[in-house]
Amino acid sequence: MTETISDNIEQTLVLIKPDGLVKSLTGNIIDKLSESELVIVGAKMVSVDKDLAETHYKDLKDQKFFEELIQYIMGAYHTRRVLALVYEGENAIQRVRHITGDTNPEKASPTSLRGKYGRITTSGVFENVVHASSSFEDAKREIQLWFKPGELTKVIFDTKEEEVTKKEAVWK
Ligand code: DAT
Ligand code: MG
Predict the structure, then answer these.
(1) Ligand 1 centre and the CA of 74: distance in Å?
(2) Could you tell me if residue 160 is inside a domain?
(3) What digits encode the pLDDT tens for the residues 101-117?
(4) CATH number of the structural domain spanning residue 43
(5) Residue 131 appears among annotated catalytic residues
């Protein structure tokens, strides 16, 4: 009998949102995610501008909470910083979502990250401390939005070579 090996290796985007950073939850969140035994293949601090925020949440453009959501992820209520991480491993998307918990922190399991650390503000913003991709298509789009291929230690999506000439800041 041949053994069936199911290896559904995925990558998924995790963001530690501005409220997670100001509450000094980075360690707690990474520690909890390490229970998944997934591997971090990318990490960087990002100062989120409007373009990035709106592109990331483009599917929610028609929601009444969209403007506040954009302000929140840009750091208007906390700090203009987000820690972006890419986790890789078997069934990474579903496993990270499970640890993250329900979108609504009041409905999230109390032991999930959002259940533990999230809150809803009096003006209705879901401050749920962490983002996690919710499908393969979303994960691919989001990873490609937040990271360049060279910023990951390993990339599972197709890449191409391109000549890029642009000015950028260097140390002096
Ligand atoms: P998730 O972040 O769990 O993937 P989503 O993609 O539906 O959830 O929404 C993105 C974010 O938008 C979510 O993390 C918090 C905010 N949000 C969603 N539904 C909301 C609601 N009913 N009221 C306020 N904010 C909401
Ligand atoms: Mg989502």
Answers:
(1) 15
(2) no
(3) 999 999 999 999 999 99
(4) 3.30.70.141
(5) yes
Judge whether 44 and 86 are in contact, CB under 8 Å.
Answer: no
The stretch 120-148 carries a mean pLDDT of: 98
Predicted pLDDT at 54: 98
Q: Does the C-beta of 110 come closer than 6 Å to ligand 1?
A: no
Q: Are the C-beta atoms of 77 and 125 separated by less than 8 Å?
A: yes
pLDDT band at 3 (very low <50, low <70, confident <90, very high): low
Q: Is the CB of 69 under 6 A from ligand 1?
A: yes
Model-level pTM?
0.95
Q: How far is CA 157 from CA 5, 75, 111, 161, in A?
A: 22, 30, 33, 13
Q: Is 134 in the pocket of ligand 1 (CB under 6 A)?
A: yes
Range of the domain at 69: 9-151
C-alpha 35 to ligand 1 mean position (Å)? 25
